[in-house]
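Exercise 7b. Backbone tokens:
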């Protein structure tokens, strides 16, 4: 930026010595780059004499620069601070971009693992459903085939139980020893219970088969694996990289204000100095 270069050049001259400041302004005149309004005024005061015009211009230009030296110095400090902040922020943005890419890739890998595990669970559930259907069909078929036999067995148990109950009653009525009545009654109870319990055998076999097939499948381990991946995703998302840009109390509005104030002082235009 030409404006900044001109301002920096002036400050370097001022820090050296006042003579250097005059030399710097003389270089402007020789190069033909001057303040248009001040040059016109200098020509008027110098009666359009080239030497007088240059002399007045240099003297007035140096005076104006001296009056604005404090503002110029403040502006340059702000420019330096802005440059440092930009340098720090550029490094911070580079760091953030690298870390965010790694973070994004790690999440992507976890999501792929999660989806793969979900697909495995779906496949395992389908396979388990097929195995259960096959097992249940076999149990029901066996139950149908053996139904007459089981019905006959239940009938015999119930008849035996009824007979035992009758015998027990007769034994009590005719004064049979208590031990005999007890054993006959026990036989009656066991026979009746066996006849009634056999009615739930098919449901018990189906439930046992369902439990055994589920335990033999890999669903439990797959669900545990999926939950572990979900926990990793939640943990990783809670540690997302942050972009921390520095401002260091930089007053951008003040810099803009100084630029506006100093612009006319360094707005040089090509005008013949002769």
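Sequence design result:
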């Amino acid at each position: 930026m030409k404006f900044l270069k001109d301002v920096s050049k002036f400050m370097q001259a001022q820090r050296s010595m006042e003579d250097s400041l005059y030399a710097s302004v003389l270089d402007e005149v020789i190069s033909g780059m001057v303040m248009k309004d001040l040059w016109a005024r200098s020509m008027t005061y110098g009666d359009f004499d080239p030497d007088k015009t240059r002399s007045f211009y240099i003297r007035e230009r140096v005076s104006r620069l001296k009056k604005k030296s404090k503002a110029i110095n403040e502006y340059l400090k702000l420019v330096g601070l802005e440059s440092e902040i930009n340098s720090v922020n550029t490094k911070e943005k580079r760091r953030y971009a690298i870390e965010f890419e790694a973070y994004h890739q790690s999440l992507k890998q976890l999501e792929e693992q999660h989806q793969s595990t979900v697909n495995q669970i779906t496949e395992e559930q389908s396979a388990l459903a097929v195995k259960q259907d096959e097992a249940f069909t076999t149990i029901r078929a066996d139950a149908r085939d053996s139904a007459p036999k089981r019905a006959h067995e239940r009938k015999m148990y119930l008849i035996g139980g009824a007979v035992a109950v009758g015998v027990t009653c007769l034994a009590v009525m005719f004064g049979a020893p208590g031990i005999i009545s007890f054993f006959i009654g026990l036989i009656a109870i066991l026979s009746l219970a066996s006849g009634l319990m056999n009615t739930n055998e098919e449901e018990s076999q189906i439930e046992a088969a369902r439990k055994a097939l589920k335990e033999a499948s890999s669903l439990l381990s797959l669900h545990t694996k999926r939950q572990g991946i979900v926990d990793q995703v939640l943990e990783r998302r809670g540690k997302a990289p942050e972009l921390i840009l520095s401002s260091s109390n930089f007053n951008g509005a003040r810099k803009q204000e100084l630029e506006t104030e100093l612009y006319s002082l360094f707005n040089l235009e090509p005008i013949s100095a002769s």
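Instructor comment: The chain has two domains: 2-67+250-270, 105-237. The chain has a mean pLDDT of 81.
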